Amino acid sequence: MEKQRVLITVKTYPTLSRKYGETVCTAGVRKDGTWVRIYPVPFRRLDEKEQYSKFDWVECRLQRNTVDVRPETYRPVDQHELVPVGEMDTSHNWSERRDLLLKKSRVYDNLKELIAGAKANQISLAVFKPARIHDFIVEEDERDWDINKVREMREASRQHELFEDNTWRETFRVIPKLPYKFSYRFEDASGKKSEQQILDWEIGALYWNCLNRANGDERTAIAKVRQKYMDEFLKKDLHLFLGTTQQWHQVAPNPWVIIGVLPIPHEKQLGLF
Fold it and tell me: Which domain of life is it from (predicted)?
């Protein structure tokens, strides 16, 4: 089985997993512009040299994840192969990223088309260009992980293979749960409005960093996050990375959520003279 080369463009905020402790939905684009979701990945339990960043190239063997019906979902044959082998930088006004993500990869602007594609199980990952961002929504959420899920994760070692190393379950420090949900309210090219939650790891990290700099003042931290996602990003040629959730892929009226943002600079127009 040959290794596939994938540019990582999506890393979602970790969620609890009974089997893996935490999982991160990782997705990216192959050199031909096609999408692939790499799941599951217990990212924070990887060795430091194996921890990749967004816009890193990774090369690994992938096999179809038959537990997940979404067509782009694959699992790594060996998670230790998920080692960065290069990166795609932002030189020349993001020219390489622009070519791969906005030209080779298809950019959608119609939600109805994406919803129909998900229901037909034809697509579950996409680049999307909103016609207009109306608002950035912040909602309070549960502040702690479900204690029953944490306990199940800790105790699952008793049900695993005798020779499998599960000692990490006793000491693994679960990532703090975000106490807020962040969403964009936007409309597409046809005027259809939608509100979708942003599940990107970056927005979670931004909140915690802002909270730390604000000495624990949540209102100040939220204001800083809003400033980034509204004031700063809306000055760019903002595109969204959308994905469907496994649970609601073919059944929800709109199964799509925002799994990443691409605040790419506007393309420079060459003068006539």
Answer: Bacteria
